[in-house]
Automatic annotation (TrEMBL), chains A, B, C, D, E, F:
Residues 2-60 form the 4-oxalocrotonate tautomerase-like domain. It comes from Mucilaginibacter sabulilitoris. The lineage of its organism: Bacteria, Pseudomonadati, Bacteroidota, Sphingobacteriia, Sphingobacteriales. It holds the Pfam family Tautomerase. This is Tautomerase. PANTHER family: 2-HYDROXYMUCONATE TAUTOMERASE (PTHR35530:SF1), TAUTOMERASE-RELATED (PTHR35530).
Amino acid sequence: MPYIKIELTREGVTREQKQRLIKGVTDLMSDTLNKDPHLTHVVIQEIDLDDWGYAGEQVSVLREKGITADKK
Amino acid sequence: MPYIKIELTREGVTREQKQRLIKGVTDLMSDTLNKDPHLTHVVIQEIDLDDWGYAGEQVSVLREKGITADKK
Amino acid sequence: MPYIKIELTREGVTREQKQRLIKGVTDLMSDTLNKDPHLTHVVIQEIDLDDWGYAGEQVSVLREKGITADKK
Amino acid sequence: MPYIKIELTREGVTREQKQRLIKGVTDLMSDTLNKDPHLTHVVIQEIDLDDWGYAGEQVSVLREKGITADKK
Amino acid sequence: MPYIKIELTREGVTREQKQRLIKGVTDLMSDTLNKDPHLTHVVIQEIDLDDWGYAGEQVSVLREKGITADKK
Amino acid sequence: MPYIKIELTREGVTREQKQRLIKGVTDLMSDTLNKDPHLTHVVIQEIDLDDWGYAGEQVSVLREKGITADKK
């Protein structure tokens, strides 16, 4: 009975990317823990950039400064 | 001090249904655990169908296939 | 696809009371929204009294002062 | 590694107030627990008044009756 | 800035399996959304079987009846 | 009606520090948003080091390597 909540900043995640996240997490539960996918629920929640704080700053402010969450 | 979070797919839940959920959950806490309703908070969060995954698929895709969450 | 999280102070909730909460919430989703119980998951999380704050005080301190969450 | 979720009724919280919440919570983690702000994430979630229940009533109904959450 | 919460029934998940879940979810965020792993936090929460309800029953009761969450 | 959840790694947070967190967050809601403290609930959840992942690693592993969350 896994339930997985994914919280992300709202920055243009596509429907197809969401599908890949859902499929990927469900497969991970199945492959690692042998969980029946019919008992795995995944919820994605996008958060506006004004509503996510990191290092004491709104992400909207960080993005204005050119600071991204991209992998280096 | 109960706090209850209800996550649901966004599929036309009415204001009146939400009121019934809130009343029902609060009464359940009061009847089962003798909790003062003034200390019971209930939060309902509707989730877009692209953002809820079940059995590895987006619910939006399941609905397109005619698969519902209705009671049989 | 409802998922419901119930957070409660840890104050002697019995296994039988938990079963009543789970049954009650699942029935409420079924009666109010016609949701299939096989798609309804309920998670109960008990919180230690030092870890729940109300009105700026730990509930453990409130309980020492004789302040309860009981219905009047 | 603190993660903090703030859930609030959606009642005109400004961008500047959100920034104060984010800064305030991050500083609290740093001052009280010596946590590196680069490991502190804060997420604010505003909840519509129909979706928050208190004492068995929707907050939207309480507000119509003139009942606020303001400090006395 | 992803934050992922994984809720699971407490049924003997090993430390090594938890590490695989954490690695797998973090890689998924990196591969799908190009997210820097230093901004990805994953929290696993195991839930006692009395505290997880499915189809209106405690999972502890379902397990006594021989009903598992295993993949068929 | 604010509800605040604080998730922290379980690393010796004292009862007194928890009280400071609860008081600090409640005051912040009152000072910034004029919220009545009797409507503010704060829940602290400590997470075992094996259950928190950062940058793809369990925090327990990071701590063994001498990597802390301390402010520099």
